[in-house]
């Protein structure tokens, strides 16, 4: 660490230089001046961060990492695909951009998309409800696994699973987005925008 003539360096960690400014009544930390009166709060934040990193082993794991590993280790080996799928004839499961484009081209009305992940428990629980909605409402229902079709999820800023999006037909923009497994909100959006299928 370099010390300037008007400052006294007293702590240096790799790239962070903590300098006590003798004339200003503050401490300069990586170019940010912190008043002496705020140093106690600052030290509490630093110590808490160090203790937190020490207790977590310093890893950058996310809460989703554990369910993802558990799901991959307990998958049914009889499955030919790894992504989440629908067994309903009323829901198109898409895993490629080509399938996505085909599904949109086949749509005669609005399109409802469920962005899900096979490792997500809320997604696994919401798929049967989504299949029920596909039997009731007059729209094209699509299910896509974000791990298989990450480009599509990224394009639509999908950051949480499950995420439901309603697209205006034909090939219009997104009308509504629901993040999370809020069944009432999802159904209310469908009631508002999509009609009930005609009885056969």
UniProtKB/TrEMBL annotation:
Protein name as catalogued: Thioredoxin domain-containing protein
Record's keyword terms, sorted: Membrane, Transmembrane, Transmembrane helix
Membrane is among the record's keywords: yes
InterPro entries: Thioredoxin-like_sf, Thioredoxin_domain, Thioredoxin_H-type-like
Residue spans crossing the bilayer: 7-30, 36-54
Region (Disordered): 62-87
A family per Pfam: Thioredoxin
Bias (Polar residues): 71-87
Positions of the Thioredoxin domain: 60-195
């Amino acid at each position: 660490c370099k010390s300037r003539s008007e400052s006294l360096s007293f702590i240096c960690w790799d790239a962070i230089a903590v300098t006590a400014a003798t004339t200003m009544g503050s401490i300069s930390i990586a170019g940010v001046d912190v008043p002496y009166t705020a140093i106690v709060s600052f030290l509490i934040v630093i110590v808490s961060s160090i203790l937190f990193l020490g207790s977590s082993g310093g890893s950058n794991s996310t809460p989703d990492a554990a369910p993802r590993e558990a799901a991959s280790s307990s998958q049914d080996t009889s499955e030919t695909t790894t992504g989440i799928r629908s067994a309903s004839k009323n829901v198109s499961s898409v895993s490629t951009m080509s399938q996505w484009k085909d599904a949109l081209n086949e749509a005669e009305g609005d399109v409802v998309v469920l962005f899900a992940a096979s490792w997500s428990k809320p997604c696994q629980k919401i798929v049967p409800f989504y299949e029920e909605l596909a039997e009731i409402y007059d729209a094209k229902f699509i299910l896509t696994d974000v791990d298989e079709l990450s480009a599509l999820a990224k394009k639509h800023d999908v950051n949480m699973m499950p995420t439901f999006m309603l697209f205006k037909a034909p090939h219009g923009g997104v009308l509504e987005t629901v993040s999370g497994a809020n069944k009432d909100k999802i159904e209310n959006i469908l009631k508002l925008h999509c009609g009930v299928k005609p009885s056969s």
